[in-house]
Amino acid sequence: MRIGDVDIRPVADGTGREDAREVLSVPGEDRWACHPEHLDEHGVLALALGGFLLRTGDRVVLVDAGVGRIRNEKYAGGGFLDALAAHGVAPGDVTDVVFTHLHFDHVGWATSKGEVVFDRATYRVHAADWEHFVEAADADPGAVRKLSPLRDRLEPFDTAVTLAPGLDARPTPGHTPGSTTYVVSGGGQRALLIGDVAHSVVELEEPEWEAVFDVDPVAARAMRNALADELADTDDLVVPAHLPGLVGGRLVTVGDRRRFVAV
Ligand SMILES: [Zn+2]
Fold first, then answer.
1. Three-state DSSP class for 124?
2. Reduced to 3 DSSP states, what percent helix, strand and coil does the chain have, rounded to the nearest 5?
């Protein structure tokens, strides 16, 4: 993808597999019969894991950092640095790592064995997520261990902010307290990297659906629907974090239904 002067490339790390009926639907109902094309024969929803590489001017930016070296019955990662190398980027070339939020499947390569992986980069995240996942008394110890080494290189933000030419951070809380959408713009075009504001295109097409991963499901649904309303029937690209192939697409209205069309 290219938006104005900004080059956007997917950086694949691995794949997650979730029981779709357990993690995503209208509360108390199973409506997956309307969307069988997104599931395999076992009712599993496949989630791509990874991030995106943005090049703008002399900046080399990662939006999220994959799931890391993990392998269990649901999640498998490990390919992130090789995928980055295939784009001609070594860890030391990365100038900025910006997180949509701090769930484990977005920060996997931020640190490894207590060491910062992208050791020349500045790390950016909304302050509300740093508080929720690292500083809070009830923060998950695994997340604290993973993220604490970033502290000296961290520049949190707590409002909308321009991070680089053509790259703006826009708080979109709900999925997590500091959930952030990164807006890439240029040449009259936009791409919105929305992180987990939506995990599947179904959430962008069906305004009543909710995901169990949302910290505040009501706020998350309102934010997701507001973004979908803003983007529908425009040239803007929407790029969720977990679509198979790490693709983006457009939202279009067909009759009385909203549809995602990959590009
Ligand atoms: Zn995620």
1. strand
2. 25, 35, 40
| DSSP string covering 27-58 | TT---GGG-GGGB-TT-EEEEEEEEEEEEETT
Q: How far is the CA of 255 from the centre of ligand 1 (A)?
A: 31
CB-based neighbours (< 5 A) of ligand 1, an ion: 105, 196
Residues in CB range of 46: below 8 A, 6 or more apart = 15, 16, 17, 40, 244
Q: What are the residues facing 122 on neighbouring strands?
A: 96
- How much is the pTM? 0.96
d(CA 182, ligand 1 centre) in Å:
15
CB neighbour list of residue 36: distance below 8 Å, 6 or more residues apart = none
CA–centroid distance, residue 205 to ligand 1 (Å) = 19
One digit per residue, pLDDT tens: the chain, 263 residues?
A: 999 999 999 999 999 999 988 888 888 888 888 888 889 889 899 999 999 999 999 999 999 999 999 999 999 999 999 999 999 999 999 999 999 999 999 999 999 999 999 999 999 999 999 999 999 999 999 999 999 999 999 999 999 999 999 999 999 999 999 999 999 999 999 999 999 999 999 999 999 998 899 999 999 999 999 999 999 999 999 999 999 999 999 999 999 999 999 99
Distance 117 CA to ligand 1 centre (A): 20
* 222 vs 225: CA distance, rounded Å: 5
Q: How far apart are CA 151 and CA 147, in angstroms?
A: 8
Q: Which residues pair with 63 in a beta bridge?
A: 52, 98
Q: How far is the CA of 106 from the centre of ligand 1 (A)?
A: 6
Query: Counting beta carbons within 10 angstroms of the beta carbon of residue 22, is it exposed (0 to 12), middle (13 to 18) or buried (19 or more)?
Result: exposed
